[in-house]
């Protein structure tokens, strides 16, 4: 006989879970007891949103479901931001939520929430486990659903009396083992289709990617001499020095790449949903009457035809399909100049343009790109600063970018902690704005407690930069709600027990970074950014202060 918390932890161990992220609550004490001698590391966080974001980042890094434990009511509502990120990023994740005792339901008892209603539109599946003996069944199904088709988050609510009850029940088997589908003939057909193009473009994104897939994509692109554009915040899916890399389809897209999408006659879309960011609000490819022919490959059949009606579609994961493509011989084509010009457009785009101020973000990002190890992991949340990172950093290997396609502020720092714990031997750098960092900087004590040592660069311009940029565009000179007051971030880092310093000139950054790295502690480098240095998407422009 085992109590529910022990049954749960044993099942997690069988499924290969090595680490979970949590904020403790009295609603799942039995689960905490089960974790006590399970061999599973419990990363104790300071707020449930941070715990959920760390779990989501773990899912991105490993391809296995990230696991979070949060308490009922306020804990679950705090964690919802991480569930939304996992949903939009197609990241496998399982979140366990404490719940009131079963005999108290429907009385609006203390912290009672209907989780099926709350998370119904955010998660792939939401369930409440009523019987202790069925825990292995529910947990096994949760992990299978989190990774199947289009991956995403699953939420399981755990009534506290169910968790503490005893049951004699066998564990279920380990993770599902799936055989890769035979896609050779389908890949041949896809190549026959793309060979009819005069201006082809391959667009890559979405879930199901790996180091092997990145190499297969590089091989396929080189053999067929096709230009490849990567989806929003999927810049590490193909090393950016590859001669066929054409850039990424992000919020501040290269105007020449945007025009190339419009001018393409055939799009081979693999893994990506071809969403509003990649298509600039569905303007580059019109869902009602696309000017381009589309061959869409996605692991979830429900995504095919959901927005666009492709000329051809394939239900397959991106890894398997790209592998099949990489094994095919070269086809005769006449698009060499088209591909060469796509790469030239990218090279021009990443050439730094000077911004205002003594600390120039384009120089900082260029220094990072030139000096960080190829396997360094960069994380970020959302903010104006991210435009410089996406434009000027050259990603050299797979899974070196962790960033939310949902545009969630505050993500970068928890993600960096998770990355540093998973890869303690690699350099992990978080980029954040002063507004972005303040949303989750309390997790600095989590980093100290568990030995994570990311280096965080805080681009401090004293404002919510992205919102201010749009505000100046639509309501010039009428500043409302976008000014920020911030602490001394360097001093705050030192107060937590980390390393902290402030940089006011670009020339001082390299030495400051070296000291931060040598400290072997969680480090914060605050960079004083001129408030006029705002990105307008395709250009960098000074916007006047009031």
Secondary-structure class: alpha/beta
Number of structurally distinct domains: 3
CATH architectural category of the largest domain: 3-Layer(aba) Sandwich
Task: Give the overall pLDDT as a whole number.
Answer: 93
Query: How much helix, percentage-wise, in residues?
Result: 25-40%
Fourth-level CATH superfamily of the largest domain: Thiamin diphosphate (ThDP)-binding fold, Pyr/PP domains
CATH domain topology of the largest domain: Rossmann fold
Query: How large, in whole angstroms, is the Cα Rg?
Result: 24 Å
Low-confidence spans:
536-546
* Biggest beta-sheet profile: 6 strands, parallel
Query: In what range is the share of β-strand residues?
Result: 15-25%
Q: What is the 3D shape?
A: globular
Q: What is the quaternary state of this protein? A: single chain
For the termini, the CA-CA separation is: 69 Å
Q: What is the strand tally?
A: 22
CATH class call of the largest domain:
Alpha Beta
Helices and strands, with pairings:
Blueprint: E1 2-3, H1 4-14, E2 19-22, H2 29-36, E3 41-44, H3 48-62, E4 66-70, H4 74-89, E5 93-99, H5 115-119, E6 125-128, H6 135-147, E7 153-159, H7 160-164, E8 166-167, H8 184-194, E9 200-204, H9 211-224, E10 228-230, E11 245-248, H10 255-263, E12 266-270, E13 293-298, E14 312-315, H11 318-326, H12 336-349, H13 361-371, E15 377-380, H14 386-392, E16 401-402, H15 412-422, E17 428-433, H16 434-438, H17 444-450, E18 455-460, H18 465-474, H19 489-496, E19 499-503, H20 509-519, E20 523-528, E21 533-535, E22 540-542
Parallel strand pairs: 2-3, 2-4, 4-5, 5-7, 6-7, 9-10, 9-12, 10-11, 12-13, 13-14, 15-16, 15-17, 17-18, 18-20, 19-20
Antiparallel strand pairs: 1-8, 21-22
Helix pairs in contact: 1-2, 1-6, 3-4, 3-15, 8-11, 9-11
């Amino acid at each position: 006989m085992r109590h529910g918390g022990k049954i749960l932890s044993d099942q997690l161990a069988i499924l290969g879970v090595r680490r979970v992220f949590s904020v403790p609550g009295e609603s799942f004490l039995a689960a905490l007891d089960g974790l006590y001698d399970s061999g599973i590391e419990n990363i104790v966080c300071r707020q449930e949103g941070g715990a959920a974001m760390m779990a989501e980042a773990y899912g991105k890094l490993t391809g296995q479901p990230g696991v979070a434990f949060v308490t009922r009511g306020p804990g679950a509502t705090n964690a919802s931001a991480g569930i939304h990120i996992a949903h939009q990023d197609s990241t496998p994740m399982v979140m366990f939520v404490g719940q009131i005792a079963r005999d108290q339901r429907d009385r609006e008892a203390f912290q009672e929430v209907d989780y099926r209603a709350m998370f119904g539109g955010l998660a792939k599946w939401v369930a409440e486990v009523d019987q202790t003996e069925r825990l292995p069944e529910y947990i096994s199904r949760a992990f299978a659903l989190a990774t199947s088709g289009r991956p995403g988050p699953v939420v399981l609510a755990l009534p506290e009396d169910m968790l503490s009850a005893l049951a004699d029940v066998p564990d279920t088997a380990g993770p599902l083992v799936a055989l890769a589908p035979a896609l050779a003939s389908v890949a041949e057909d896809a190549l026959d289709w793309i060979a009819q193009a005069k201006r082809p473009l391959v667009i890559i994104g979405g879930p199901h990617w790996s180091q092997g897939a990145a190499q297969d994509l590089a091989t396929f692109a080189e053999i067929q001499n096709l230009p490849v554009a990567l989806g929003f915040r999927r810049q590490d899916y193909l090393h950016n020095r590859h001669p066929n890399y054409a850039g990424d389809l992000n919020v501040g897209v290269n105007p020449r790449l945007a025009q190339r999408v419009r001018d393409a006659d055939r799009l081979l879309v693999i893994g990506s949903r071809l969403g509003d960011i990649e298509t600039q609000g569905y303007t580059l490819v019109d869902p009602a009457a696309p000017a381009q022919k589309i061959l869409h490959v996605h692991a979830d059949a429900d995504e095919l035809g959901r927005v666009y009606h492709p000329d051809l579609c394939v239900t397959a994961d991106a890894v398997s399909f790209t592998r099949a493509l990489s094994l095919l011989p070269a086809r005769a084509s006449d698009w060499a100049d088209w591909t060469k010009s796509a790469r030239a457009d990218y090279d021009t785009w990443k050439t730094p343009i000077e911004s205002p101020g003594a600390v120039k973000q384009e120089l900082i990002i260029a220094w990072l790109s030139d000096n960080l190890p190829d396997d360094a992991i960069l994380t970020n949340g959302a903010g104006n600063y991210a435009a410089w990172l996406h434009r000027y950093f050259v990603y050299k290997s797979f899974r070196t970018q962790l960033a939310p396609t949902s545009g969630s502020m505050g993500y970068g720092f928890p993600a960096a902690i998770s990355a540093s714990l998973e890869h303690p031997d690699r350099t992990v750098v978080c980029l954040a704005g002063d507004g972005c960092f303040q949303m989750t900087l309390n997790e600095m004590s989590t980093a100290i407690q568990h030995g994570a040592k990311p280096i965080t660069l805080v681009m401090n311009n004293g404002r919510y930069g992205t919102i201010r940029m749009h505000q100046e565009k639509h309501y010039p000179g009428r500043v409302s709600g976008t000014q920020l007051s911030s602490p001394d971030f360097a001093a705050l880092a030192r107060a937590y027990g980390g390393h902290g310093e402030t940089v006011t000139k670009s020339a001082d950054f390299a030495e400051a970074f070296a000291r931060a790295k040598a400290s072997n502690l969680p480090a914060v480098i605050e960079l004083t950014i001129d408030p006029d240095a705002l990105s307008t998407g395709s250009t960098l422009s000074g916007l006047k202060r009031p």
